[in-house]
Design brief:
single chain, mainly alpha, 30s Ribosomal Protein S18, 4 helices, about 35% helix
Length: about 90
């Protein structure tokens, strides 16, 4: 009988196993999200300038709302663009 080490997989056997998502703000104790830091806010925006949803970022509801407000404020002050073809 072949052991697990002898079997060659065509694809990664860990594909279906997803890691547990966590809120990085709760983990690192971040309480305030600064709207004047566009480099940090770009982590939560896709290439087209849209906000990434909670199910992708793993943020809690409380901090997802704060991120949305911060991104909207940064857009209003022209620190982040509203629409872009290629942002990153």
């Amino acid at each position: 009988m072949a052991s697990r080490d002898d079997i060659k997989f065509l694809s990664n056997p860990k594909i279906g196993q997803n890691r547990k998502k966590y809120c990085r703000f709760k983990k690192y104790g971040i309480r305030y999200i600064d709207y004047k830091d566009p480099d940090f806010l770009l982590q939560f925006v896709n290439e087209q300038g849209k906000l990434l949803p909670r199910r992708i970022t793993g943020n809690s509801l409380k901090f997802q709302r704060k991120i949305a407000v911060a991104v909207k404020r940064a857009r209003h002050l022209a620190m982040l663009p509203y629409l872009v073809d290629q942002l990153k």
